Amino acid sequence: MEVAFIRRYDRTKPKKNEDLVNERIRFKEVLVIDSTGEQLGTMSSRDAQQKAYDAELDLVCVAPKAKPPVCRIMDYGKYRFEQQKKAREMRKNSKQVSVKETQLSPTIDVHDKNVKLKRTLKWLEAGDKVKIAVRFRGRQMAHIDIGQKILDDFVAECEEFCTIEKPAKMEGRTLTAVLAPKKSK
Q1: Can you list the residues of the chain whose pLDDT is less than 70?
Q2: What is the model's pTM?
């Protein structure tokens, strides 16, 4: 009584970023590497698949753009698990930069400005980007130059901790600038 080898994955049409495995490999000839890392040489893909089935493993194309394409005999489930584990680790180690916002007005008082400045500097030291917005209401639109001066003073006080990523620009009724933290060497 002969026992057939059962594969543990779906054999439907591959998606864009999916690996070429077993029957999905359509190349005439492939360079085959066995499970121990030893090169078996160039052979037809059908022969390579048969060698993989005999070893009760899968044939995975690891370099489809090479001449000839390189395929490896391995446990595909274990390979996918390792790839997912690496991707999770990369996501965990990458730092997301968030953009905080400080809102000012053309009529802001000195103390209020200092409180907002202190909070902005704290965000910059933490590595976050900061968007500074001066909002104009009603008749304040006639005195945009006052808001521009307040924004320029605010940015000048932050200058030793940050770089100006986007200079002051009027967007509707709001004057905005974006500051990024200085790169530590």
Answers
A1: 1-18, 184-185
A2: 0.51
